[in-house]
Every structure is written in structure tokens, then in C-alpha cells.
Amino acid sequence: MLLNQYSLLSILLSEARLISSHPFSIKLSAKAMALKNEKLTHLHFYYHNLLAGPNVTALHLNAKGPLHLNDTAGLFGRLTMMDSPLTLEPELSSTTVGSARGLYGVASRTDADFVELFNFVFTADDEYRGSTVTVLGRNPILAAGIREMPVVGGTGVFGFARGKVHLKTHSYNATIGNALVYYITQKKFISREAHNRLLWGKLKKPNSRQLEKG
Question: Which residues form a coiled coil (predicted)?
Fold first, then answer.
């Protein structure tokens, strides 16, 4: 059986903070950034982390074989890189909305305690295409109940995002290590247009000669 994890991802915008004027900095206005007119969206998708089979989406970088979660001594230091699809339905053949790209590793000598860093990269042909949400944090794989990881940022329509991911394990394939994770997401964000309009309206774009000089 596959590992089914139920997750809730709530993303809020960080408050715009005024900073002192400096040659490489400018003051930003929360009002001009449209932070008082945040958008709220609700997304849900399935994440496929496949370590075996015909469609492998994750590779161990410094060890071979499946992750035996009860063998904590043998797990410590193991790193895995992933480019795992996000789909609308549990089936891998269903509509793909993006991928989870990044890495995770075992950061404990005594527990199956993972540290994970990855981006949800949205690739569907809609307003989210090219935007990302970044997750970085601790994931105690064998912990009972709901687990949490923080959202540390985003790009595109999810710029200034922050929040957390909730995960709950339902089942796990200990033989091959494949996992299926269900995410429900709630996000607040400002529009890409509002951000770009403010930023590029105040910053001077370098000319070609400046770029050549570095």
C-alpha cells in the first residue's frame, strides 16, 4: 500500500516592512503593494513520491535501496532529490498541475526525522503557471497524528507567502518506499501585477553597458 498523507497548507502574506533608504534598498508601501487587498485561493492536489517502478520521481543521492524507517542508525544522513508530480486525482495518469522539486534528508541519529526543502512548481496552463510555493522544515515521518512544516515564501502570484503545511500519514509501502500525499491548500497573496508595478516603478533598470561591467 502507498503512504497516504492528508495535508493542509495555509499561506499568508508577510507584512511589508519599511526599511531605511540605502543605495541598494528602497522603502515599500503596504498600501501600494495592495497588501490590504489580498487574494484568497483554495487548491488541492496529490503529490507522488516514487522511489521505484517505471516512473521514478525521486532518487537517493548518497545511498541505495529503500528507506527502512525503523533502522534509524542506517538512515542518518541519507539525502533524496525529487521532481515529483502534483495531480488532480490519486492516479498518476490524471491531470498534472505541477511538481514538487527539491530534496529531503534524514537529520536525526535516533528517529526517522526528515528535514525537507522543496518548491511546489505550478505548470498548468492557468493563472498559477510559473508560480511557486516554498516549504522548508522538519517532518517527523513516523509521528502519530497531524504533522506540520512551515511555508517560507513563494514567487509569482504567491509572492510574500508564508504559512504551514499539515500532513497526516494513512499508509506506507515499506518495501519500495513509494508515497502518495494529498494536499489541501489555502493561500493569501498579492497580484503579480501590483508587485511588479511597484517594484519596477521605483528601481532603475540597468542598461546593457552596466550589465556588461557587472
Answer: none
